[in-house]
Amino acid sequence: MGKKVYKKVERSKYWIPEDGEYLEGVIVRKDIPVNTLYGEASSIEVETEEGERMKVLLSTQLYSLMENVPTGADIRITYAGVENNPKTKRTYKAYTLEVAEAE
Fold first, then answer.
1. Domain containing residue 43: CATH number
2. What is the mean pLDDT of residues 54-83?
3. Which of the four, 10, 57, 96, 103, has the lowest number of CB atoms within 10 Å?
4. At 16, phi and psi to the nearest 5?
5. What's the CA gap between 103 and 101, in Å, rounded?
6. Residue 56: strand pairing partners
7. Is 54 a member of any domain?
8. In the Cβ-directed half-sphere of 26, how many Cα atoms lie within 13 Å?
9. Of the candidates 29, 90, 93, which has an alpha carbon nearest to the alpha carbon of residue 61?
10. pLDDT value of residue 38
């Protein structure tokens, strides 16, 4: 029997994007509860092609976009920046979500 090799387990980092940045990877966990200053929110964990795991705090917009996207899906989330909602006059962080199609 060979010698065991141990790898240090790191906590997932939160993705904090700048305008136009995107995150590509596979959803490994969904509906992770997170306590914020404003109450409980939800997040997902994405594993990038490089093997890095990133958590994404889901805004209301991203949460609704993610509803029908299953764990294991290959996705790209792009941060579009802060936008204004013409109805409510409030600002929000806007994202686009794309799901890779099977080849």
1. 2.40.50.140
2. 94
3. 103
4. -120, 90
5. 6
6. 44
7. yes
8. 6
9. 93
10. 85
Here the tokens at position 45 are 């964990």
Cα 40–53–7 angle (5° rounding)? 120
Nearby residues of 12 by Cβ (< 8 Å), 6 or more positions away = 45, 53, 54, 55
- Count: domains in the chain: 1
pLDDT of residue 57: 94
- The pair of structure tokens assigned to 82 is 């802060």
The answer to the question of residue 57 being in a domain is yes
pLDDT, tens only, 5-51:
887 777 789 999 999 999 999 999 999 898 888 889 999 999 999 99
- In 3D space, the residue among 60, 40, 45 whose CA is nearest the CA of residue 13 turns out to be 45
CB 91, CB 82: distance < 8 Å: yes
d(CA 79, CA 96): 7
Rounded CA-CA distance 97/103 in Å is 19
Q: Which residue has the tokens 């490089």?
A: 50
Tokens of 47: 């594993």
Cβ(53)–Cβ(12) under 8 Å? Answer: yes
The token pair at 13 is 């980092």
